[in-house]
Amino acid sequence: MDFELSEELAAARDLARDFAEKEIAPTAAKDDRDRAFRGDLVRKMGELGFYGSVIPETYGGNGLGFLAMVLITEEVARAHSAMRVAINMQIGPALTLLQFGTEEQKKKWIPPLLQGDTIGCFAITEPDAGSDVAGMRTTAAQAGTDYLVNGTKLWISNGPVTTGGLLYVYTDRAQKHRGMTAFYADFSQAGVSRRPLDMLGAHCSPLAELTFENFRIPAANRLGNEGDGFKICMWQLNQTRLNCAAGALGLARAAKEAAISYANQRQQFGQKIGEFQMNQDLIAQMVVHEEAARLLVYRAAWLADQKRPNNLETSIAKYTAAEAAAFAADAAMKILGAYGYSTEFPVERYYRDAKSYQIVEGSSNVQKMIIAQDALGYRKANR
Ligand code: GRA
């Protein structure tokens, strides 16, 4: 077992840290307030190869691997968690195309996603289908060489701005999850209307409701066969969950750093508040949860790099990191008091953004369900 990062990985992490500190962090508070979608930063991250680590050079990537992806994501999320979502929106579709696309589909759609020329997304969730993916209702009916899509997707990250990404629908609802089909869709085409949604946090990651009315997708945009969609979706979620886990880790770290820095400056009752044992308890727990999450996230990424099954390990990592982020943001706010609650300081943003990690990409309860059902022998997670 080797806990040392290779020079290559350390360099990828350092590049991301440098970029995040110089280009993302300085405007994070303003961007959050303005609810800005930073397309310029999305493109810059593409130019720096942040989306290409999990894609081979043939399709425009750099092949550094999943460990590089989580190291980069952690650094970006530490500076501004919502900007981490942008990474996932590019990587999620690119990886899924790599796994399930034809040669032609990969060559056509992966490179623009890696460059940030296409603004990616993946549309799974619906008003009545969140944790229960198979409960979706959107359908695609074949019409000549095209499909016509009708239905509504909800809470779609990048929904207001996406130009291309994954769309999961039913081509045969009677067959339940075996009738689901995955497409790569060009969302700049007519037939889709977007209603932007305002959320508690992650303001720079815009969300929308997407309504499809006879939205036309060429059959050539189908991934795999009709009926392959549910398995493709579960595969995709396992990859994008890992990115979320890394983002939560970065946010947990940012909250811990803010708490430590403040505890070392703030004086009350004639001493630094870090000297009080109740604050030490919070800081110790922040450190421990973050370190545990880091090892679990890196292990899941390492397994992915070895091309070994890692659904269980990714769920464990995502659950632990999401809870660590929520704990750290809450603890930091307790330590900073009114300075934490104030919108003039970043901790309130961490607090708002942290909650998203317990909800997205399979809620904490969905992760626990996957973990417990595996442990109990009901449903193997790694299948
Ligand atoms: O036996 P079979 O042939 O019918 O196949 C079953 C099973 O083997 C079938 O699917 C297969 N399957 C898988 N195959 C490969 C299930 N899981 C996998 C897998 N991982 N790999 C049906 O299986 P099932 O277990 O009966 O499915 P289910 O009970 O309907 O659902 C399972 C589960 C609850 C885990 C699933 O629906 C799930 O993961 N739900 C959570 C949804 C989620 O994560 N949504 C995320 C939305 S996107 C988002 O949040 C964007 C955030 C962006 C960001 O912040 O980055």
Task: Write up what this structure looks like.
This protein has 383 residues and is an alpha+beta fold. The chain contains 12 helices and 10 strands. The chain has helices at residues 7-24, 28-34, 39-47, 66-79, 81-100, 103-115, 229-265, 277-305, 311-336, 338-341, 347-356, 364-375; strands at 122-123, 139-143, 146-157, 165-170, 180-185, 192-197, 207-218, 222-223, 267-268, 271-272. Strands 1-4-5-8 form a 4-stranded mixed β-sheet. The chain has a 4-stranded antiparallel β-sheet with strand order 2-3-7-6, with no helix packed on it. It has a two-stranded antiparallel sheet with strand order 9-10. α4 runs antiparallel to α5 (81-100), α5 (81-100) packs antiparallel against α6 and α7 (229-265) packs antiparallel against α11. Glutaryl-coenzyme A binds at residues 85, 88, 124-125, 131, 133-134, 157, 177, 230-231, 234-235, 237-238, 240, 243-244, 311, 360-362, 366, 370, 379, 383.
N-to-C series of helices and strands = HHHHHHEEEEEEEEHEEHHHHH
Helix residue percentage: 40-55%
N-to-C terminal Cα separation, in Å?
A: 25 Å
Q: Which structural class fits the helix and strand makeup? A: alpha+beta
Strand order of the largest sheet: 1-4-5-8
Please report the number of helical segments: 12
What global shape is seen? Answer: globular
Radius of gyration: 21 Å
β-strand percent reads 5-15%
